[in-house]
Amino acid sequence: MTGKWKTFDDDGLHDGVIEIYQNDAKYFGKIVFLPKPEDKDAICDNCEGEDKDKPLLGLVILKNMKENKGEYSGGTILDPYSGKVYSCIIKLLENGNKLEVRGFCGISLFGCSKYWDRLKGNSQFTENNASNT
What we know:
This protein has 133 residues and is mainly β.
C-alpha cells in the first residue's frame, strides 16, 4: 500500500497526490501535491485539534491504519476541506494499482468510497503535467 496515490474529487477530476508510508506496523498518508494553484497555500481552517490551521500540503490525513487479512483498517481519514474525521477501511484492487478508500461514521455500510490510482515509478506532479484524467 505504500507509495504515491492520485486522488479524485466527486466529479472524477484529479485533486491531489497522497503519499502513504509505514511507521512501525501502522500506515499513514500525507498530502504531497495539490494541482489547484489556490490550494498551494491553503490551511486546514475547518480542522480541530493538532491539525487546526496546518497547511494542507504536507498534512497527514490518513492515520493509524493496520493491515488485517488483505485490507487496512483501525485508523482514520481526515477530509481537509470539511475538517471531519472518519473511520476508514482501505482495500487494494487491480493488482495493487488502485485503492478503495472507504470513510464512514459508525458502520461502513453508511460510508462513502473513493478510488485512488497508484502513481507509477518516480512520477512527479507539477502544474505543467498534472492532468484531470
